[in-house]
Amino acid sequence: MPTPSAARRGLAIGAGLLLAAGLLTSCSSDEGDGTDLVAQAQEVQYRTELAQQQEIERRAANLPTRPAGTVVIDGNTDSSLTRDLTSAYVADGTVTTVDVGHSGEDEAFQRLCAGEIDLVDSSRAISRSEWEACRAVGLDVVQFQVAADAVVVAIKSESDVGGDCLTTQQVQDIYRAGSPVTNWAQVGLDEVPLSVAGPDTQNKAFDFFGRTVLDAQQPSLVNLRSDYRALDSDRGSRTFVVGSARDERIAGTNADRQRVREQLRSEVAAQRQVVDDARDEVEAATAEVTKGVRDQRPAADQARDQQRLDKANAAYQAARTKLVTLKASWTRAKRAADGSAAALKRYEATRGHLSYFRFSYYELFEEQLRPFEITLPDGQRNCVFPSQRTIVSGQYPLSQQLLLTTTTRSLDRDDVSGLLEFTLSHAVQEAEDARLVPLPDAQVNQQLAVVRGEQAPTLVVPEEDKAAVESTKDAEPVDEPAQ
């Protein structure tokens, strides 16, 4: 049955239409035939609209009655917060029975507009055709947001590939199966090699990215390019983009290590000359000792020759020992320098590496990751940066809103409003626990005010009708009573 307020509204509309039609007919009776024809046409129009309104009220009266003590939710409930929140609601001691289905969004919206269920769990807004189906039976649609989610497409922070903005089509072209894109120049940026990676199929971001970017209803690896590196952790994806922390640390020492290696190389070369000179002195001293013996020099002279030889041998051995030590140090320095050069090469090679992450993970490492702003191919939502505000509002193109859609008919039921109040009151904490994007407190409180009856609900208007409504408001501002 329609609510008393809906019935009163329908009767008032009908009475107003009849009154307007009668007034137009009477006012035009004294005028010419042209005016009579206009009035008659308007009367026909008003009577048609009245008949339509009466038909809507008849259909509303035939809607199935929603049983007291039971709330039925259907939609995309397997990948949202609904099951956890309803379980917590039941555990909190409510006497309301909550029936949670999972038939998908399309069927759930059909059931809502047929009056069979109370709430639709979805990651999309109601479509125009679904909205019209609800309106055809006198159901006004109300939408509540529980949380949001998004993926961020990012390269390494402080790196540059020639731009900060990609269209959703370009992101799809980069990642899709059969993609020929191997250089950033192919999407209009710099001549930089492009390599892609991302989560494997076990990561929730994989399904979200596949549905949102690749338009795959059931995403799998076959939807992605053959050289896509599916990594088993967010950390692995981050390392692919920014390089390992170890490589970064070692690469940072490369200049010092190269300097030490070159310094030791020079010292080894200099010490080799010292060894050669010491060897020459040993040979010269040996020759003098031999000659002194042969020439039968005085004992004192032969003693001095032997002292010279002993000194030369000692110097030669010391020089050789120092050379061995320097060569060992140079070998270690060369190994370290080669390692740092390789680490630097690996670290620099990550320039142009691209991966995607859930927004909640990106926030933890935003100093390491450089996200692309995203724009729609038609120029709408130009270059939107991923933030809590743009994601919650749905402005960021690679985001989705977690919604609960109901009707004013169901919202008037205490069972439904009680569940919604509990859900919204706990949504922020549940969203954080699930690594989703929580709503700001002000938005939560505003929705709670609607659920509690402290504020009139804002009825859903199809997207294509909003611009016309807003332009009318701007052109002819009027004071209207609150709904």
TrEMBL record:
SUPFAM superfamilies named in the record: Periplasmic binding protein-like II
Signal recorded as keyword: yes
InterPro entries assigned: PBP_domain (IPR024370), Phosphate_ABC_transporter (IPR050811)
Signal peptide start-end: 1-20
Top-level taxon in the UniProt lineage: Bacteria
Coiled-coil ranges from the UniProt annotation: 261-329
Keywords noted in UniProt: Coiled coil, Signal
Pfam families per the UniProt record, alphabetical: PBP_like_2
Region (Disordered): 462-483
PBP domain location: 69-425
Biased composition (Basic and acidic residues): 463-476
Protein name (record): PBP superfamily domain-containing protein
